[in-house]
Amino acid sequence: MSASVTVHCNRQWADGACAHRLYTDAVTLDEARSVARWLGWRTHPGGLDYCPTHSGNPTPGPAADVVQLHAHATADGGSAPTPLEVLTSAAQRLRALATAVDEDIADNPYWHSQHTAREDWFANGITNAVGGPAGVLAGLLSPANARLFAQALEDRRPRTAIPAELFLISRNIQRSANR
Fold it and tell me: How much is the pTM?
């Protein structure tokens, strides 16, 4: 069993409430609130906490963050990767795949086209092979875009907030490597 503390924004108005949350693996409320304050949250001893957007912070962050403070064990007794390790692993996988695709594009005449610039060969090849919206979507993540995304994933520091969306995408990329 593992413990975690989620800090919720308490901003309310007539039609609803703020949905911002900060997910941590803190074991105490004080520890979670300490991280929240460090990230721009306003916390009060009376139990009311406010996200950066509603605390007067001029630079609000994403709606949810992942901050790891403690090491976690896996079911088999091993050590679970930290969120930062998950992002790094996903970035390495993206770079490796981008290199492999670049080599395939250079070597395989299927990708070559006289009717479009070389940088568009990947998107055109995927769209022709898959077709429809799925082909267009798949074609958007060209090797160059995969490298840019990998750079964004690795542009993180230890013990800093990671937007939950980046963490979840990275975890999905890491899991896909095991299929």
Answer: 0.61
